[in-house]
Amino acid sequence: MHRRDPWPCLAARFAAKEAVFKALQTGVTAWQEVEVRGGGDRPVQIALTGATRQIARARGVANVLLSIAHDRGRAVAFATALGGEVS
C-alpha cells in the first residue's frame, strides 16, 4: 500500500531507530544496521545487523521491544532492550 504522504511514517521509523540506539546505549553506529519491520496491521519488529548486532550481543541483549506512533506532525518511539539468551 502506498501512502499519499509517507513522511509521518518515515519520521516514526527514524524515531524508532534512534530509540533503539538509546536502548542499546551505543550512540548512533550505522542507521542501516537497524531495520524496522512490520507496522500497519502487523506488529513492529527490529532486526539488528553488523556492528550494532555485535554490540547488542556483547551487552547481553537478546531482543528489543519497540512501540512507535505518529500523529499531527509528531512521531514518538519507545525501545526496551531485553537480556537473555541470544539466538
From TrEMBL:
GO terms for molecular function: holo-[acyl-carrier-protein] synthase activity; magnesium ion binding. Residues 6-56 form the 4'-phosphopantetheinyl transferase domain. The keyword Nucleotide-binding does not apply. Pfam families: ACPS. The keyword Transferase applies. Keywords: Transferase. Gene3D superfamilies: 4'-phosphopantetheinyl transferase domain (3.90.470.20). This is Phosphopantetheine--protein transferase domain-containing protein. It comes from Desulfoscipio geothermicus DSM 3669.
